[in-house]
Amino acid sequence: MTDTVVSEPAFSQTARLEIGADEYRLRRERVFRLLQERQLDAVCVFGPTRVAYLSGFFFSPTERPIALILTADGRVAALLPQLELSHFQQQGPALDDSAIYPEYPGGGSGRHPLLFLRELLSRLGVLGRRIAADVDGYEHRWGYRGPALGAVLEQPVQADVALIDNLRMVKSATEIALMTEACRWGDHAHRLMQNSLGVGAEELLVSHGASLQATRDLLAALGERYVPKAREGLPANAMFIRGSNTAHPHGLHEAGAVKAGDVLVTGAYGVVGGYESELERTMIVGEPDARFQRYFAAMLAAQQVGLDALRPGRTCAEVEADVRRFIRVELGMDDLVRHHTGHAFGLEGHEHPFLDLDDHTVIEPGMVFSVEPGLYVPQFAGFRHSDTVVITSSGSERLSLYPRELDELVVPVG
């Protein structure tokens, strides 16, 4: 572990914990320059997270298409359903133009919402010119049925999710500060959950109870500084699964109570300013036997290899290769691997790039990853720690600070 990217606090003790208008403006300016460099005239951004990243407009995605349009000459426009117009005006930037449609699929207009977008692009003077998009039309969700953007415009559209998502890979000091705060509350939620664990504890009740109490604590501590960015979910969350169910990397909750000898795999996170953290731990109820200790030690050592391997200038694939080589050669447990070592995240729980053998993205300071190599023993248990890690100028720093060692992760019996 080495120096941190954040040399001083990005927020005062009274500042609202969110990205400010100036940073959103700088993000859009980066897109304007990118369009000019690629000789594109405009980009239509449909992905809800990408829209939020560029505009500050957070919304609950439904069947109603929303698009943010940026032009190479610096104009900002939007396609919005009527029901989101005032919501956008509350959060988003001033628009140079907009297309407001009454409802999906038409609201009595007899016209699909993307036809309103075609008219907007015509008014902006870019119809028939070089248009890009993150995806070629609105995502199909909640019953939405719509044509491709290229079909509506009757011209090719350069669809490329990387156009915006590559800009999201390296986090700003403000983004890292928000994620650091999110880690603090994810750690707190996990501590509350661990303190509530014991033989007879109900999996669902303990998970939700700890999440609710951690959220109460967060709101009491942060007050009006905390700015929710979603309609659903809690700002601080913790959960666990138990027993042989943990041998499934993404095992679902099961009804029932904790028993002595159960292996637990936990997950906890906070959400601050729309940015997430990630924390996972492997625990044991009662004294660990030799079998558990063997796999736990192997998992912890593999995670340390991943943490040590992360530094600028290396590729994601090289980090994964270090971890897989250690698991295969030093541990002899390659058959217990079910997934890659980790992934980037920020506004979403999983983002590009990935610590994977086929991802050759070069690691840069300011990137944020989970580091979570797992070992999964069929019919016995899974073993996985995950930590939020930020890349620094010469290495990495762990932002989730929850204990990793076994003696801190034993749930007492009796």
TrEMBL record:
Domain Creatinase N-terminal stretches: 27-114
Name recorded for this polypeptide: Xaa-Pro aminopeptidase
Keyword Hydrolase found: yes
Top-rank taxon, per record: Bacteria
MF-aspect GO terms: aminopeptidase activity
Keyword annotations from UniProtKB, A to Z: Aminopeptidase, Hydrolase, Protease
Keyword Secreted among record annotations: no
Limits of the Peptidase M24 domain: 178-392
Pfam families linked to this entry: Creatinase_N (PF01321), Peptidase_M24 (PF00557)
PANTHER family cross-referenced by the UniProt entry: AMINOPEPTIDASE (PTHR46112), XAA-PRO AMINOPEPTIDASE P-RELATED (PTHR46112:SF2)
Segments traversing the membrane: none
